[in-house]
Amino acid sequence: MSAEPDPTPQPPPATKPAPSEHPAPIAVIAGGSGFVGTALRDALLADGWVIRGIGRSGPGATWGDPASIRRAVDGADMVVNLAGKSVNCRYTTRNRDEIYRSRIDTTRALREAITDATAPPALWLNASTATIYRHAIDRAQDEFGGEIGEGFSVDVARDWEAEFFADELPSTRRASLRMAIVLGDGPANNLLFGLAKMGIGGPQFDGWWFAHRRYRGIGPHASGPARTHGRRTRGRQRFSWIHIDDVVGAVRFIRDHPEVRGPVNLSAPTTTDNRTLMQTLRRVVGARVGLPAWRFMLEPAMWALRTEPELVLKSRWVVPGVLREAGYHFAHPELEPALRDVRARR
Q1: Which of 26, 47, 159, 270 measures 20 to 30 Å from 140, CA to CA?
Q2: Model's pTM, two decimal places?
Q3: Span between the terminal Cα atoms of the chain, in Å
């Protein structure tokens, strides 16, 4: 007698899922542990990107392992390099050398890895700094007619970009991100807000101080005088800035606009001077009084804080020529609303 058929429905045989026609794009973020890198990582993850990291240690690629760096960049769609020792420190000989080498060496390692890649990334964005331009009070500096300055910070930026743009990478578009001071959850913002809340958020005046060698040039083409004196700015040194949202927005914009390449100033379209900056900060934090500070006061204070007066005394008048010409619309073009937004998120 033949067996009765089993009436229980049977599941269909297992099949291997078909590969996606549009796999998730891959971004490599090098040196992404700071607040800029964290914001960018979160934004790209929200966009559906897969993130590969490169750092000093951890489960991903590391700077001491060139083979791991090659594996990370091979097949990636975009590389963003933010690596480099923080400049929020005293410019001792040891720190100066580390600031310089940490930028040059990591950029060289990435360039060599991309050169050797079987499938190199289509886009490489490398951090740079708006401090590459001269101390400017007379006119704004953009990518088309801006004048390169001299001294330690400028030499770091100039050699950093030279390493970045060295050699031919025919399959990879490159843009250097000349970032102004980024408004967000970073050390510069914490310092400025703290000064304003403590009642010492008045203007900072440059002026005479004992000549020193901390800002002397560095690298094979060191520039500027061996010893540095102050400048008389009367609190009118310019302050260029950009909100963290616009750093992320600019990265997305450059990614999606293949005509953008070369140096790109990441700065808001409006700048202010130090006096106005500090007045604005006092309004934002509700401080009635803001005592001014002269260089002879700032030098010992900054020594105690283990940072440099240059961070608040150099006049940075930088405007985003390339981004404006390409049609980028800033989310935070005005200083006071940008500061209020940053404070609301703290």
Answers
A1: 159
A2: 0.91
A3: 80
| Calpha distance 281→31 (Å, rounded) | 30
What pLDDT score does 208 carry? Answer: 87
Concatenated DSSP letters for 129-185? EGGGB---SSS-B-TTT--B--SHHHHHHHHHHHHHH-S--TT-EEEEEEE-EEESS
CB atoms within 10 A of CB 33: 15
Q: Which of 197, 296, 178 is CA-nearest to residue 247? A: 178
Fold of 26-345: Rossmann fold (3.40.50)
Rounded CA separation 271/60 (Å): 39
Encoding tokens for residue 184?
Answer: 């967000």
Token pair 């030098």 in the structure block, residue? 299
- Closest C-alpha to 106, from 159, 46, 173: 159
Domain boundaries, the chain: 26-345
**154-171 pLDDT, tens digit each:** 999 999 999 999 999 999
Q: Which residue, among 194, 330, 312, has the nearest Cα to 250 in the 3D structure? A: 330
